[in-house]
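Friendly challenge for the regulars: who can give me the structure tokens for this chain first? No prize, just bragging rights.
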Amino acid sequence: MRVALICAALALSTAPALADDDRPVTDAERAKLDEAMKAQNCDGGRWTYDDDGHFDIDDARCADGKVYDLTFSPEYRLLKKELED
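First reply, four minutes later:
Bragging rights claimed.
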């Protein structure tokens, strides 16, 4: 029983490290994302390609002066736009 609890604790403690499989976007992806961002009247932020197959832009500033987290599909369509807290 103790061994099982220790293994469970170790597995849970390494889960955040395993979930962080994001990679930087390539130059070709950046050019297409730049166009998609301009269509949303936003720019800046930290751009990554997530292991779930989406592009994530954290802390993008948009024309309304607010900061958002944006998610784009692999086809560069906006999937989600969430106001940053």
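Residues 47 and 68 are 12 Å apart (CA to CA). The two ends are 42 Å apart (CA to CA). Your move, everyone else.
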